[in-house]
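Here is my example:
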Amino acid sequence: MDDAAGTDFSTYKEIGIELVSPSTGIKYYKPVANSSSKPVVGMCFDSVDEAFEFYKQYGRSSDMMLKRLLNKMEFLPNFTCHYTIKEDGRYEMVFVPFTCIDNHNRNVTVGAALLGNETADSYRWLLLTFLSTFGAPPQVVVTDQDAAMKRAIKDVLPRSRHRLCMWHIWDKITSKVGANLCGTTDFKKRLGRIVWDDSIPIDEFERQWPIILSDFNLSEHEWLGDIYNIRHDWIPAYYKDEKLSGLMRTTSRCESENHFFKKFCNRKSNLVEFLSHFDSAMEVQRK
């Protein structure tokens, strides 16, 4: 079958949909489709329905062929066939949803993409596509500390306020500083009071931060120094007067959306199944 791992097809003889081994006579099969019906990198569709119909048509060739082969194996005892699917994900693509907040403070998925990798170039292409579709950049973007995404946002959305997810940074405290210190002292509690308090004045935050670190001999801690240097991007005290400051401090809304989509999709779905499940998820969300 198609995608037989480790098989060298260069010596195989091609007969229609069959690739025949010259030494063993074993036959491998491949989907039949003309060039206009085969998916290629960089394809764009005007709608989910159009993409779904395209991949449904393409998938029929391999799916119908597989059913014929399995039926043949059932009725012909001497006939055998095997097919393989990669265990680590059929396409190894990254699902990237765009989650926004509507006027009722609810999550709304306004777009999504499947990326072949998580490079800065891929994110730039995605953000440019987003801009061409919506016509205007978002006021605020909240992400984790992914470096490639940060570069892409800086290049494509220079007017958008890019904030880093507080939760992702705070969740690393124990592993970076040490479980013993966090578990046997009030270090994390004291630091949390000034980190999560969006009413604290900036000068008070900057006064207390070095005092807390000094009390626990952490003044020279490299990671704590790094997150302090980017404090304007994740500490609420520095953007409490900006738009959406209280609604968008973490990516918890995106994490909630990811959990929502997992109810409908899984990493082993083929593209046809994924698009169908995604469409069903959108119908449920918009009810």
